[in-house]
What we know:
The protein is mainly α. It has one domain (6-30). It is built from 1 helix and no strands. The radius of gyration is 13 Å and the shape is rod-shaped.
Amino acid sequence: AEVGFEPRSEFVQRAVTKLVAGLKSTEHETL
């Protein structure tokens, strides 16, 4: 579990960044 924690954290961080970017893009479009 410890070995698979780092890659998972990186994946989650990337997903969050992508989500935030998409959210901002959508917000900008709506605004």
